[in-house]
Amino acid sequence: MKIVFLLHNVYAVGGTVRTTLNLAAALTEHGGHEVEIVSMSRHREGPRFAVDPRVTLVPLVDTRADGPDRRQAAYAEPSRDFPAAEKRYKQYSLLHDQRVRAYLEERCDADVVIGTRPGINVYLAKWGPRRALRIGQEHLRHDAHSKKLRAELARHYRRLDALVTMTEADAAVYRARVPLPGVRVLSVPNIVPPTTVAPSDGSSKIVAAAGRLAPGKRYDLLLEAFAEVAAEVPEWELRIYGGGAQEPHLRALIERYRLTGRARLMGTVSPIEPEFAKAALVVSASDAESFGMTLVEAMRCAVPVISTDAPLGPAEIVTDGVDGRLVPVGSAGALAEAMTELIGDAARRKRMGAAALASAHRFDPEPIVARYHSLFAELRASRFRRAGRRFRARATNWARRKVRSLRGARPGGRGGTSHDGRRSRAHGTAHPGRP
């Protein structure tokens, strides 16, 4: 079977890039499939993450300054098909529209095509080959999208065969709020491969955190909490891995809380597992997480995690009190209390670390690939039945619109006015069914 992934930019660094590469490699290794990754853009010579040599990369638009595509007239025009409300809209051009459409309609010979972000899923819904299974992945939460984008996605997602979210909680939101007749909506978590790094023994005095230095990750809250912890255990250190626009702000907070030399911004490190294995705890203070890759990566290293119970991912990864702790969102005090509790109990940290390592096997490649195989088989077997549901839903919606239109056109209906009704009564004409 040939499987194609449509990815924003395989040459960039990001969670979706990493998880797509993991799944592509696993489908090749454990499924024996031919896998191709089609990158909407290419801004550098080679990918930053390692790519399985059996996976084919197909870049569509070269955005490098010296690339010939930048001289194309269509490159200077904004996209007409990528949703304007999508966060990446400004990175898409008319040339992207043209290249993606040409690829999907003329070159794509895949059995399965998987989109990996909302705007790309719209491309897939519009132009994906009808013979292929068309599957949209949502790596963000439904509620993270604007109202305008959600409305546009609802129209286009009806043409897909399936919509895959990263958590069951998010799949439930889509099933409850977005009518998608004939579309299978389900959750399949990301693959997080086992690490070759020796597991943590829990004896270090290091608390680690990792991710983009962005407001939603709430490193400001983590620093506030660690300042409280550091007052009680001055020998412990906080290491934050990642880069982003908030770095100057966080450096200022480190000075304000007098944590210089105790809290360190370590920059971007990949792979992160060797650094997590040096830690005794890994902490996430996020306001929201669509999945929580760093939590699983820490668990792979036998490190217990402390996370805010953010919507929607952490509660499906961490079992509170067993392999980590879940604390209320936005509470520096609760984060500090959980850190202090585990810092003071080495035996409990060790038990939780062992439980975390065992629990992380849920995200091994084999069971995730098996879930995708089951999905592919189910979608193939139900194709005509699901097409019938879509047809019936369209017919029902058409009939409802027709009825509303006819009612509105009648005197005194939505198309008339109260004045029309008064005029008919004044002339002695009663409405049918009224005395």
Topology at a glance:
Blueprint: E1 2-7, H1 15-31, E2 34-42, E3 56-62, H2 94-107, E4 112-115, H3 118-127, E5 133-138, H4 147-157, E6 162-165, H5 168-177, E7 184-187, E8 206-210, H6 219-232, E9 237-241, H7 247-256, E10 263-267, H8 273-276, E11 281-284, H9 293-300, E12 305-308, H10 314-317, E13 324-327, H11 332-343, H12 346-359, H13 365-381, H14 383-409, H15 418-426
Parallel strand pairs: 1-2, 1-4, 2-3, 4-5, 5-6, 6-7, 8-9, 8-11, 9-10, 11-12, 12-13
Helix pairs in contact: 1-13, 6-7, 6-11, 9-12
Q: If you had to describe this structure to a student in words, what would you say it looks like?
A:
By secondary structure, this protein is α/β, with parallel strands linked by helices. The chain folds into 3 domains: 2-191 and 377-381, Glycogen Phosphorylase B (Rossmann fold, 3-Layer(aba) Sandwich), CATH 3.40.50.2000; 206-363, Rossmann fold; 385-426, no CATH class. Helices cover 42% and strands 15% of the residues. It contains 15 helices and 13 strands. It has helices spanning 15-31, 94-107, 118-127, 147-157, 168-177, 219-232, 247-256, 273-276, 293-300, 314-317, 332-343, 346-359, 365-381, 383-409, 418-426; strands spanning 2-7, 34-42, 56-62, 112-115, 133-138, 162-165, 184-187, 206-210, 237-241, 263-267, 281-284, 305-308, 324-327. The strands form 2 sheets. The protein has a 7-stranded parallel β-sheet with strand order 3-2-1-4-5-6-7, with helices on both faces. The chain has a 6-stranded parallel β-sheet with strand order 10-9-8-11-12-13, with helices on both faces. Helix 3 (118-127) links the parallel strand 4 (112-115) and strand 5. Helix 9 (293-300) crosses helix 12 (346-359). The longest helix has 27 residues, at 383-409. 40% of the residues are buried.
